[in-house]
Write the structure tokens for this entry.
Amino acid sequence: MPPGGLEKITSAEVAKRAGVSQSAVSRVFTPGASASPEMTQRVRRAADELGYRPNILARSLITGRSRIIGLVISYLENNFYPEVLEKLSAALQQRGYHVLVFMAPQSIDNIDHVVQEILDYQVDGIVTASVAMSSDLAMRCRAAGIPVVLFNRAQDDPRLSAVESDNRSGGAALARFLLAGGHSRFGYIAGWEGASTQRDREAGFVDVLAQSGITLHARAVGNFRHDEAAEAARTMFTGPDRPDAVFVANDHMAFAVMDVLRFELGLRIPEDVSVVGFDDVPMAAWPSYNLTTVRQSAEAMVTQTVDILIDHIEQDDSAPRRATVPAPLIQRGSARLPDNGSNPYDT
């Protein structure tokens, strides 16, 4: 008898109460298995009456599937990632899977250590969000039958599946927009230098500037951190030779930059300096920020990620897949508009 003196109810007892076979009970409680609505109703009613709960861990030993997805994420401070976590969890639950979250620093060495711990939980797949992992570890995961999908990151290794926004075109669109607004001194506040998102956003931005014979007037690193971005803004905008426009590599940092410019340095946005970001988190639309930014569609990125991961797990689709989600420019009030009030350069 289990602790507390309560006898554990078995699937055989549920089957007897419902008047069905034990295998029918198993099908009802197995995600994706075939069971008619009538049978499902009978079995679940009997289970509720008896207080039966299926032993998911025991079933995983039999089927070899835990139906658990390990999610590795480096930080939730950026509002983009709590939204992603919510949408990813909901999408996987609809497919009969659940998320086990692991926090990890951004460096590859630490990520590799965490992923090796995840493997001990017998997960069916792994999603790494806002972090990178070594190609060697990714290949060992695949060799063990555990697929990996990189979310909002890409690596040069073509054997890795990845889903990301079109970061380069987003950065390019922001440069065209600011150029059309008549700016001439451009600043850039970078994210973590090891991130593909940071690299591609900056590359798209500076490439378009270069086409007009312009180089960055100032550059600083905020590492995708609020406090570091604030300090970068203090350094970049103290003194007379400041930029008249700044691209901040994500919205989370852009909010910190805007607060420093307005409340510490007394600068007007966009009259004295235009500020643009990347992500389009809900706060970007708040009147207090009204941030011009590039939208990352969490919904579309999550859909692509789940589809690729489930195909790898259930269809034995081992071919790596890359998905790039469009990232449109969202115009608000934190940056000067072109003379005609639109952005003909968003291509």
Summary: The chain has a mean pLDDT of 86. The two ends are 68 Å apart (CA to CA). Residues 66-164+298-325 form a domain with the Rossmann fold fold (CATH 3.40.50.2300).
